[in-house]
Amino acid sequence: MLLQVLIRIALLAASPRAASAWIVGNTDMRTDDGSIANYMSPVADFVNTASGPFNLTESVEDHRNSLANSVAQFGGTPAPGVSWRDELIPGYNGDPALSVRIYRPWPPRAHNDLPAVVYAHGGAWALSNVSVHNTQVTHLVKACHCVHVSVEYRLAPESKFPGAVRDVYAALVWTYEHASELNVRADAIGVGGDSSGGNLAVAAAIMALRAGAYPPVRFQALIYPAVTFLYDDPAFPSITEFAFLQTYGLDQMLYFRDLYFESPADYGDPLASPYYAEDSVLELLPPGLVVTAEFDTLRDEGTAWAAKMSELGIAMAAWRVMHLIHPFYIMRSIFPLEVSWVDAVYGETVNMLCGTA
Asked: How far apart are CA 236 and CA 257, in angstroms?
């Protein structure tokens, strides 16, 4: 009940600052010289030990295997009471068919009016898949008792921008057009994603707006999302502040940007960097949720996105998890309290925005 009250306050707040809430520890434990690097080193060392520092000389396939192994070891176990199945769906406008994994809370409720989330997993546009993120999504399904359609979008470098965006949009259209078969509410379908998946989720919502609000998108639920590829923009100081991180610092961001794009000319495209889309488009986006981590290179991207939404009159609940870095959310067994809080906030917000809270 308290969490519901806090979320309502966050969604109704006039500014993103007022809408922010610190959900885990708020003590400033920096060293006397104010060095963020010294303060962060215990957490960063711990995560590096768990997942291994990112070696830029390894192959993409090695990075994929490393992420899969880390999540298998530290990602926890699937939530009980959730079933899933895979299905092949048509691609967008002649693109190749793609797979989606459809999750349902189990046992099913007697009525057929569940909301749905079209979910894009993280993994820097290049590394992950629906199976690696399977446990994470089951807990989100459990938290909001909603259907989730997790998208097996094409990865870089085999597929360049905007292939992944088109795949997520294809899944959004398919979910809407098959709402009756999926037993979900066609008026309560939203987008969600973590990290690069948050980027793809927002881009898919923008594609829907370009198509005449087809399909309608009810909400956006974003966990430490990326909203820009223009890394020298002073609007995002955390990119340089935490550039030294080996888990997801600036070197890694530049590496994945090179994998994802055919040309630097596309960096500022609104489907790549939605932060720079025209206000006349952004103001039509739905309300939602943004979760950030205090010591994350993507922190200020999420914060700036929530601020822009609020400035345009869109209700956004902005939450920050203190003392953690990217990608804490897929390390459930290491940070169980923090991840459980994210699950709860995600679930309550989605249900509130769909009128099912």
From this structure: 16
The residue type of 286 is P
Strands 316-321 and 288-293: parallel
How many C-beta neighbours within 10 Å does residue 32 have? 6
R_g of the chain computed on alpha carbons? 19
Listed by start position, the domains of the chain span 2-353
Distance between CA atoms of 210 and 13, rounded to whole angstroms?
Answer: 29
Q: Which amino acid, 130?
A: V
Backbone torsion region of residue 355, taken as left when φ is above 0, otherwise alpha when ψ lies between -120 and 50, otherwise beta:
left
User: Which amino acid does the sequence have at 247?
Assistant: T
Backbone angles phi, psi at 175, to 5 degrees: -60, -45
Which among 192, 158, 157, 186 has a CA at the least distance from the CA of 173? Answer: 186
Range name among 70-74, 145-149, 244-248 with the lowest pLDDT average: 244-248
Measured CA angle at 205 (ends 201, 208), to 5 deg? 140
Active site residues: 195, 296, 326
Residue 50's pLDDT band, with cuts at 50, 70 and 90, is very low
In a 10 Å sphere around its CB, with 0-12 CB exposed, 13-18 middle and 19+ buried, how is residue 109 labelled? exposed
Strand order across the beta sheet in which 184-194 lies:
20-22, 316-321, 288-293, 220-223, 184-194, 114-120, 147-151, 98-105, 82-89
Contacts of 72 by beta carbon, 8 Å cutoff, 6+ apart = none
Superfamily holding 2-353: Alpha/Beta hydrolase fold, catalytic domain (3.40.50.1820)
Global pTM? 0.89
Q: Is the dihedral of CA 225, 226, 228, 234 positive or negative?
A: positive
Question: Is the predicted pLDDT of residue 35 greater than 50, yes or no?
Answer: no
Tens-digit pLDDT profile for residues 67-98: 999 999 999 999 999 999 999 999 999 999 99
